[in-house]
Predict the 3D structure of the following.
Amino acid sequence: MSTHHEDRIKQLLDLMTPDEKLGQLQQLAWAWDTGPGSGSTEEAGAAARKGLLGSVLNVFGAASTNALQRIAVEESRLGIPLLFGLDVIHGYWTTFPIPLAQAAAFDPAVTETDGEIAAREARSNGVHWTFAPMMDVTHEPRWGRIAESHGEDPYLTSRYAAAKVRGHQGADLAAPDRVAACAKHFAAYGGPEGGRDYNTVDVSEQRLRNLYLPPFKAAVDAGVASVMASFNTISAVPAHANPHTLTRILKEEWRFDGLVVSDWTGVLELVAHGFAEDGAAAARRALGAGVDMEMVSTTFADHGRELLARGALTEARLDDAVARVLRLKLRLGLFERPYVDESAAVTEPTASTRAAARDAAVRCMVLLKNEGHTLPLAAGPRSIAVVGPLADTGDLLGTWTVPDAQQRFPAVTVAEGLRTAVPEAHLVCVPTGGAPGAVEDADARAVAAAASVDFTVVAVGEPPALSGEAAVRSDLELPAGQRELIEAVAATGKPFAVVLFAGRPLVVGDWLDSAPAVLLAWHPGLEAGHALADVLTGAVAPGGKLPVSFPRAVGQIPVHYNHERTGRPYDATQPDEKYVSKYLDLAEGPQFPFGHGLSYTTFTTGDPRLSRTEIPTADLSEGATVEVTVSVRNTGDRAGDEVVQLYVHDLAADIVQPVRRLRGFERVTLGAGESTEVRFLLGAEDFGYWTNDPEGVFVLEPGAIDLYAGADSTARNRCRLTIN
């Protein structure tokens, strides 16, 4: 913590009136949003002129932010600059794949690059603060915001959370190409009942700490500038008014000195929760729990003086909240450099940023199935059909894109990408779907095209509008007509592959047998078509892995690899046993497990080898580590990528442990016949766990630990470590 900053904060606090202090805790929003609390730049300008505004949301562009900033800096009494925030989730002008797709790369460098490019583009346009990364671990694919997450595993999510923070913030927040990151949503937002957004989360302390909190701790350790409270309740206490998570864990236990911001109207929603009787009570409970800045709703500003007067809000708590706002502004260098150079604003993607987005999209794609080497496409002149509802659309950027980017820089289409990649081929494109009455004709033309060409690419899946915030689905099968299209193309007997676009895991079992090859492209961002062509033609071999399990049916949810073992676990050696934990009408396990992903080549992974097979608990507690070595070989005839994954399982513990926990991964590139060794260092945090004690107790128990290494979460290569 900078002593200079703290001295400046104290000087400002001594000068500020109660109204000016409360004003620093207010964030207003407008632009394309029209929800409660949104307004005009004139309204914000009036508040800024009086020193009654701390931040604005959804105003961006160098000229727009500079104009509003001049009012705050040059016309208000104390000249405190405004903080401009914007949801830059997976790119500003250069849209990268959605976060769930990025997790499939099993390469945090992908998200760090996204963060760096987005920060540079956003900061040049006057944006100081982005509300990313989202690090809500989830076992719920019906939940639309799984698209913004990194899937079902806390370790994978933690690695990505830290990488995104580094990408956005760099070593110096005041640098002209960096923005403040925000770890959201704190906490357990990814566990809503029924997958319904904003819904109840009932969670034990041990699950909170073992599953949901690790990515937030990783972000805090990486220096994240801010944290956002979540909309949900946490065991019947709304997160926006939860002192256990916001103050005891985040600010006291983790010593977080940054800013806690509410989500959109999250403070006022305490009334709808039935947790506060009115706006004044909502302000009292949120401020008292640890929220420092209120987004959009205005209960702090409306009721703060009243709360101070009757002792419901202390001067110390108010000053602490204001100090956290000022600290972020000082760390961003806004007092010294409140304006951006309008002539230096980045106004479009560049060739280099497009290349980075293309490389990211390639690394994120997952080959789910590839019978008979259907992919890659054969070399030489040929005829290709691209059919399906997503065959020729630029709407492949994904949820949560900057609106101007979506309009000005749509994604490269599948058809365009293939035309560019194989100009010598005869390419026929037949988009299907559309207005009622035209569907059957389009499908018929698509099937006729498939019958007349050498190879067909069937582009199906969810459009981005079906995932993201408030986009909950009770049915995870393909939208109407798409399964029938796949089966009709299959009936032609000609070679084809399905390209699946999605913002979440989908149920694919009803058509999977019909498709010889399935490539999961997610929502791949700006360079979608070019990246897809790279993979389809074999210019690059796919190497992505699933960061989330794919269910066989919606009724199977939740289905995830890191589940707890039951007293009557399913035993594959006795599949006819009735009285075990299974479904009568579904095969055991997911359609595709966590970590699954094929390549155009093949790999073998050896048994994990330990630097020591026994280790004292005391040594681990004092920082000792165990090195795990895993060999991997490319046994095929071309180069490719493999992700070596390491899982642990505590055989017996005072709290029942997951059957597997991911504790290491590394993506390696190997030529045909090449091999290498991958090494992982494991320590106390990899073998211990948090108990149900609300004070936060982490324990290491003596006993046996099995370690598994392989290409997905079903790996069987095993060794055993004894902790004594």
